[in-house]
Amino acid sequence: MKLRAAVLLACCCLSCGVAFAAAGPVPEPVRLPAAAHPDASQTLRFASAGSVRELSLADIEALGLHEVRTATFWPADDGVYQGVLLRDVLKAAGLGDAPAVRVAALDGFSQLLPRADWMRWPVLLATRRDGKPMSVRNKGPFRIIYPRDMSPALDDPIYRLRWVWLIRSIEAVAE
């Protein structure tokens, strides 16, 4: 089944013009029951050219969950993450064509993610870890996860800063 999913993902990527260098695990679609998120009332704010849209955790998860097992830059955070592909949630929020997005965290940290990242890699906007909802206490409810084990290129330190957690907003910006 995993081989079939990988082949299907590769075919879809080729037909969409997206190329993934699959040296390791890629996020696979997964069906999980709706969860009682500790931060269920949490919404994520998306902004672009003067317009603002908020999506709830349920709205985001309804876009379709994917799962990836990956190492992180912080060994205690290694594990299995579930969430929505960043490119899918950006499209749903009207930011799909943005040249880059600024991802801002609750603590004031922010990072620029270029479009090339979410087009080249299946970057997740994670909402769960090991099938359990993430909360503010464990770097959630929204967190950027790169499939680091997918390619040695993702070991580059430039990606370390792009693993934003405690996300409060995503805004389209010129790169």
Automatic annotation (TrEMBL):
UniProt signal peptide: 1-21
Domain Oxidoreductase molybdopterin-binding: 80-148
Keyword terms: Signal
InterPro entries hit by this protein: OxRdtase_Mopterin-bd_dom (IPR000572), OxRdtase_Mopterin-bd_sf (IPR036374)
Protein name in the entry: Conserved hypothetical secreted protein
